[in-house]
Design brief:
The chain is built from 3 helices and 5 strands; from the N terminus they run E-E-H-E-E-E-H-H. A hairpin with a 7-residue loop joins strand 4 and strand 5. It has a 5-stranded antiparallel beta sheet. It has one domain. The chain is of the alpha+beta class.
């Protein structure tokens, strides 16, 4: 186990003894698209005390937009998986001027970034111990 310190936007960091279980990014590395410059970094940790910690970081390369970091603590792997699957991170899209003229474009980008988030959750969960039936 190692000492891990995770940032939280607008709050103190979270620190614990634990280990990284899995991580994934929703960043589109090839071509162009909404997920090339706006994306999420996900990580799942197991703590020494038996809890699970989820780190969700929003990253952006757009001028005027800032990164955001959230941390969730869960008692079981099942609840951690559910949190990852049901969390829909807020997207602070400031790269569009205000007004109805950009509403359709803003909605398109938000939908695409959320789809990329869902794909990253799938990549992360593929590296977690399978559910036994």
């Amino acid at each position: 186990m190692e000492k891990i310190k995770l940032p939280r936007t607008g709050d103190r960091p979270v620190e614990f003894l634990g280990r990284l279980i899995a991580e994934a990014s929703s960043q589109q590395r090839e071509g162009n698209g909404p997920c090339k410059n706006r994306y999420h970094e996900l990580a799942l940790y197991g703590t020494e005390s038996g809890k699970y910690v989820i780190a969700i970081g929003y990253r952006t390369h757009w001028q005027g937009e800032l990164p955001e970091d959230e941390v969730f603590v869960e008692d079981s792997i099942a609840s951690a998986v559910e949190t990852l699957r049901t969390t829909i991170p807020e997207l602070p899209l400031y790269g569009f001027p205000p007004g109805q003229h950009y509403d359709e474009r803003r909605a398109h980008v938000m939908g695409a970034v959320r789809k990329c988030y869902e794909h990253a959750v799938g990549k992360l969960l593929a590296n977690v111990k399978p559910e036994q039936l």
